[in-house]
Design a protein that fits this description.
The chain contains 19 helices and four strands. By secondary structure, the chain is mainly alpha-helical.
């Protein structure tokens, strides 16, 4: 490669030119959408300020039979590099400690896992979905995207991660697109969606879920899915902290709040049971981190925790007590489970099989001040029985009731 010299005599190595591939207008829009989905926001939900900064793009018209070789090559490169960069940006680069075969290992995700466990493979389902998304109106899907679907068993872990990123983008871009996708088999049981925004994974406001409707969380404890979940620990922790803050400032009907909290608690409890069965408490660290950040003040009151959620329309003390009990399912219910883990691991002896696992969890418990968070959660639960909270101004006795 020829080199050049500037006036100072230093040799300048020219930057290699990236090849330019000719693609059709439809394929250009599809490649734009792929980059938009993978580079929409960073771990904290902020726009990256990089290209592409606009929105999804549609190219209405007949759906092509396939892609040209150039478009296929660029799409494959975009999916491979974009997914790796996204995982790295979400936390794969951090030198953290995780468990592997019952032994703690420290380093980045690429250091802790062999190459065969970090190899991502995409199926044709992603290509077909991107073509349907580009050919339809993403603001209000009505044609190709409505007809498209894929069986869950055909999806690879990389497909599931890309579809989760698609759901996350759809939540910000178009609610119609999100509701269209969440009804499909390819998205309905997306494990990352259920761990990120479970209250939105059920169409409507029924908030009723059975174990058959939930994904198999045990699949997230090994292989590529386990590697992805390790990368998402910080992102999931931030999302749940953001959810707690949103619950404090949003005005919602009491029944809707109760349904959401019951659903969230049930989903996360199933997740914790799967992690305990697989001896992978490290993959639930994002919940410990979330609770420690949210319950970090010993003088926190129930009013401060609930915010606007303290308002309700109930008048019977039993209904009010049940309401507050549901509102505290996230901090108190989950902390009770994590406390059981701590107590069980404290009794693990040196010769026991789970000794290394126990020591790892106890170390994380001390690192994130688990005792402080548990004490605050217990204090909030006690305050929910206090009549000063049960008789709020919003729950005054109705005029037609008997005055004692």
């Amino acid at each position: 490669m020829p080199t050049e010299s500037d006036n100072s005599g230093a040799t300048k190595i020219p930057t290699p030119q990236r090849p330019v591939y000719r693609v059709t207008p439809f394929e250009a829009h599809m490649l734009w959408n792929t980059r938009f989905i993978l580079k929409r926001r960073d771990i904290f939900g902020h726009d990256l300020g990089e290209e592409p900064p606009q929105n999804l793009q549609s190219c209405p018209g007949p759906l092509p039979d396939g892609l040209t070789p150039n478009a296929y090559m660029v799409l494959k490169d975009t999916l491979a590099q974009g997914t790796i960069l996204t995982l790295n940006r979400f936390g794969g680069w951090m030198k953290e400690s995780f468990l592997r075969d019952g032994q703690p290992q420290t380093g980045s995700v690429w250091d802790r896992h062999p190459p065969e466990e970090t190899r991502l493979g995409f199926s044709r389902a992603v290509v077909e979905f991107l073509m349907a998304l580009t050919a339809d109106d993403f603001i209000e899907p009505h044609h190709y995207l409505v007809d498209w679907d894929c069986e869950e068993r055909r999806l690879t872990p990389a497909d599931e991660f890309f579809f989760w990123r698609t759901l996350d983008v759809a939540r910000q871009v178009s609610r119609n697109l999100f509701f269209c996708l969440v009804r499909k088999q390819a998205f309905r049981r997306n494990v990352w969606g259920w761990l990120s925004f479970p209250a939105e994974m059920i169409p409507g406001q029924s908030y009723e879920v059975t174990p058959e409707n939930l994904p198999d969380f045990s699949e997230c404890t090994r292989g590529v899915r386990g590697m992805i979940l390790e990368c998402l620990q910080l992102a999931l922790s931030w999302r749940w902290q953001r959810w707690i803050e949103d619950q404090r400032i949003r005005s919602l009907p009491a029944a809707v709040r109760q349904g959401q909290h019951r659903l969230v608690h049930k989903v996360l409890q199933v997740f914790l049971e799967a992690m305990a069965s697989a001896r992978r408490p490290d993959l639930a660290r994002f919940l410990l981190h979330t609770l420690s950040r949210s319950l970090n003040r010993s003088d926190m009151t129930l009013s401060e925790w609930l915010g606007k959620a303290i308002h309700h329309s109930y008048h019977r003390l039993a209904d009010i007590r049940q309401y507050y009990s549901d509102m505290l399912l996230f901090p108190c219910g989950l902390m009770t489970t994590l406390l059981k883990w701590r107590n069980r691991y404290r009794l693990t002896g040196y010769l026991d099989e789970d000794y290394r696992v126990a020591q790892w969890w106890l170390g994380e418990w001390e690192r994130w001040n688990g005792n402080v968070a548990a004490a605050v959660a217990d204090r909030l639960d006690e305050q929910s029985y206090n009549l000063d909270y049960l008789k709020t101004p919003e729950t005054t006795t109705p005029p037609q009731a008997v005055q004692w």
